[in-house]
């Protein structure tokens, strides 16, 4: 049974979103940099120990069991298969399709297209563009899990839809999201978690997310100054803020690589500092997910630690907007 979605009026949503992105950023205080990165010279050590706890809300209400929290704390990620199914899943998939095929959003700053096909590859701020995804971001199955992990009621730091078309979907280099959010957005601490709901089946041939379990316990400082407006190129292919082959080899030899796979409707929760990447999609099957980054209110972004200016609001919402 196909369920008709109920998206925002797209013209109104786009107007509201444009007004939001035109707002000046709030004044952000200077705080100590606990995780120096984008360095001019190689550090003495390849990695530095994490200085923030991983699970901070074990006593708070939420959907995760203590065993699941233990697994997340140990590996830096947790995959929950079949969280959503049936008509609810169908409605989310239809909503995704309508958003990704809406020409209003093509070639906008908050969308990324494939170079050859011009299909939208990533669409940001989807909880601002869709009532259905706004509701999903507040769903206790996602937001409640985030609360248990980060230790407070979360706000959405970033949201997006990722889409890898069959045969044409590009891969993405190994990176820690926190390294980028710290350097370019000014996120002070590792108090954020990503929730990725897979909307198409993920299998070994269509470029599933790969993660290095245990890598969240070590911060990898990266070399190279952040270019002006780096996000304009990094959203298509990240080249700044990526670990060296030497450190990746060391971490993979130590921890291995995992690629959680499963049917559409599964939820992947992963720590902001877990190293991850994905291969190109060489199968005929598309791979897509809707992705929410949940941050703690007392971890709101300050002045970027290693960039000339903060990235646009569609990449780093504040709690007053989340």
3D structure, described in words:
With 322 residues, the chain is an alpha+beta fold. The protein has a single domain (47-299), classed as Jelly Rolls, CATH 2.60.120. The chain is built from 9 helices and 12 strands. The longest helix is centred in the N-terminal third of the chain and has 15 residues, at 86-100. The protein is globular and about 50 Å long.
Topology:
Elements: H1 10-22, E1 48-49, H2 66-75, E2 77-80, H3 86-100, E3 111-113, E4 120-124, H4 126-129, H5 131-138, H6 140-150, E5 155-164, E6 172-175, H7 177-185, E7 192-198, E8 209-211, E9 218-219, H8 231-234, H9 245-255, E10 267-271, E11 276-278, E12 287-295
Antiparallel strand pairs: 1-9, 2-10, 3-4, 4-5, 5-12, 6-11, 7-10, 7-12, 8-11
Residue share in β-strands: 15-25%
The gross shape turns out to be: globular
Quaternary: single chain
Average pLDDT, rounded to a whole number, is 88
**Mind telling me which CATH architecture this is?**
Sandwich
- What are the secondary-structure elements, in order, as H or E? HEHEHEEHHHEEHEEEHHEEE
Biggest sheet, spatial arrangement of strands: 2-10-7-12-5-4-3
| Cα Rg | 19 Å
The number of domains: 1
Put simply, the count of helices is: 9
Structural class of the helix and strand makeup?
alpha+beta
CATH superfamily annotation: q2cbj1_9rhob like domain
The CATH first-level class comes to Mainly Beta
According to CATH, the fold-level topology is Jelly Rolls
């Amino acid at each position: 049974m196909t369920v008709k979605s109920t998206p925002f009026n797209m013209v109104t949503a786009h107007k509201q979103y444009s007004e939001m992105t035109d707002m000046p950023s709030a004044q952000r205080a200077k705080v100590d940099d606990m995780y120096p990165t984008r360095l001019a010279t190689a550090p003495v050590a390849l990695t530095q120990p994490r200085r923030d706890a991983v699970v901070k809300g074990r006593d708070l209400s939420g959907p995760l069991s203590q065993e699941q929290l233990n697994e997340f704390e140990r590996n830096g990620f947790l995959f929950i298969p079949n969280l959503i199914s049936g008509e609810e899943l169908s409605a989310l998939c239809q909503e995704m399709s309508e958003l990704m095929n809406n020409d209003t959003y093509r070639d906008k700053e908050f969308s990324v297209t494939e170079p050859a096909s011009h299909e939208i590859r990533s669409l940001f701020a989807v909880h601002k563009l869709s009532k259905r995804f706004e509701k999903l971001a507040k769903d206790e199955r996602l937001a409640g899990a985030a609360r248990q992990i980060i230790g407070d009621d979360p706000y959405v730091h970033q949201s997006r839809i990722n889409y890898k078309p069959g045969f044409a979907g590009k891969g993405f280099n190994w990176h820690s999201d926190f390294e980028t959010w710290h350097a370019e957005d000014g996120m002070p601490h590792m108090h954020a978690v990503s929730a990725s709901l897979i909307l198409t089946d993920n299998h070994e041939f269509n470029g599933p997310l790969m993660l290095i379990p245990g890598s969240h316990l070590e911060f990898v400082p990266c070399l190279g100054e952040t270019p002006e407006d780096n996000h304009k190129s990094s959203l298509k292919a990240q080249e700044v803020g990526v670990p060296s082959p030497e450190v990746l080899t060391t971490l993979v030899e130590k921890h291995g690589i995992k690629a959680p796979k499963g049917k559409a409707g599964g939820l992947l929760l992963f720590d902001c500092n877990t190293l991850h990447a994905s291969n190109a999609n060489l199968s005929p099957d598309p791979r897509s997910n809707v992705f929410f980054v949940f941050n703690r209110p007392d971890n709101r972004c300050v002045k970027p630690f290693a960039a000339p200016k903060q990235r646009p609001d569609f990449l780093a919402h504040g709690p007053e907007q989340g």
